[in-house]
Amino acid sequence: MRSRDIKSALERWLDQLVHASVIDDQSEARRQRGFIATHLASGCLAFCLMPACLVGDTSLIDFTATAMAVLGLEVLAALYVSHTGNLARGYLMSAAVLTTLVSWVALHSGGLSSFSIVWFAIVPIEAAMSGRRQTILAATSISAIGFIAVTAIDLFGASVRPLTLAGDGAIVNTTVSLLGLAYAFGVAIGIERRERLSQRAATLQENRYRLLADTMSDLVTCHATSGDVSFVSPAATRLAATRPADLLGDGLFRRVHVADRPAYLAALSQALHAGSATVEFRLRCGDETEVETWIWAEAHMRRPDADTVEGAAIVTVTRNISERKRHETELETCRNEAEAASFAKTRFLANMSHELRTPLNAIIGFSDILTQELFGKFEFDRQREYSQLIKESGEHLLQVVNDILDLSKIESGTFDVTPEPFELPPIAKRCVQILRPQAEQAGVELSLEVEPGLPEIVADPRSCRQILLNLLSNAVKFTDRGGSVVCSVRRDGRRIALAVRDTGIGIAADDLPRLGQPFVQADSGYDRKHEGTGLGLSVVKGLVQLHGGQLRIDSIKGKGTTVLVLLPISANGHETVTQLPRIKQVIESQRAARRA
User: Fold this and answer.
1) From the CB of residue 109, how many other CB atoms can be counted at a distance below 10 Å?
2) What is the Cα–Cα distance from 500 to 509, expressed in whole angstroms?
3) Are 43 and 59 in contact (CB under 8 A)?
4) Which of 26, 320, 339, 561 is the right S-S partner for 555, CB 3.0 to 4.6 Å?
5) Please, are residues 78 and 43 in contact by the beta-carbon 8 Å criterion?
């Protein structure tokens, strides 16, 4: 295996030992990786040398074994940093281990005259690699305590008998001093390398931010607590057609439209106190000598952390939203035109329906007189048949006109809803009685199911009667001979459920979402078998919405349809439903606005 592969494998293994809390911080991760690597290596080396220390001069076994054991504690410091991620405490543990080792060697090699005294100075030097002043001060204190302890023991004559080392004492002292110097040099190189890498990372990050600021179209500005601009990105040329220097100080504020300056200042204050704010304002572009050109701008303001950017109380990103404002204006104009057209259509339908009812009532009345032969018998039976057809056609057309009139009133908010407490079953029974002759003529069985003990409902009785009549009429009309229609009234929690279920032709799943729209029928072809305009269900939907209820339709093609109407009531039947008065207030306000 090549040395490069071994190095890569070792780095990957060390990366796994780095604490997860600093994975995203490359600088801190590099510090932990270096600490873990060096202290694991020194501790493991001490444990590996311990068996060799046990062989040789018996007078040095206790000394060397203890020294190697103390040095082996560096492994604990490395594992502590890997487990907790606290690098500062790791350096303090290492300082304590190194101070203990130096003190042990000094006490067995002459006390204050020992060659190892110089190593006390290396302890704070190693702590300098942490980059934290408090850690350096704490490591210095630990080293000072060790030095004071050795001094006290030496002065009071309590030091142990110096060990006899092989070789010349001067050579030993020189060797140990050179080792200390080499270690200090390695620590200094490590500190210089860390600072160089940090500086390189800071420069790279600065260049990236500068590249973003130079290329992005949004304007980035930094504001002081007074609101004055202290930094402007080069995008000022693209956004405001001016130099960045022209926006410094109060230059940006002076370009804000006078009418928008209060909102701009309020946003600055909100960002300063609340942390963030957004404001839209008009910004003047170009020089003052040129013709004034205004654009719409949107500024997102944010208060950075206290130590993020020095002298920047607020960081603002401003972009040109003139195109968006133009689209919003066009959309608003289109919406107003659509509302005006819808209102004009509704008024037209209401007026047309009102004008048609008068001649239709005359047609129905006179055709009824002719059918009853009050002014003489018909000479031919065909004359009686024709008069009956005129009457039925007039009634059908009047029903269509009434549906159009009700629908237009609902859409325009002029439909009168008068809520009052009443019992719903009698109304349902009366509606079934009205539609039963039509059902018998069509060969359809019509029945009513009412849950006993239903409470009173607060609603408009006339609207509820119309809802039931429309639903029952549709069910009978779209049910073939021999089928059945069931009207049920029951309680569903705080609501009354009106359900009309038939065994008719059913509705396809694709047509269900379109039902309830005016003039929409599931069977809309020219060859359809059943008459109708598609207004009945639209009127029902509008009346149900006016009452704050819900309309649900479930159907299977060829197997029948179930229309469920849910109208709100109180829990005990005595409290008034609040939806209807609120709807009436909205309707009254709409009327007043139209009159104004």
Assistant:
1) 22
2) 18
3) no
4) 561
5) yes
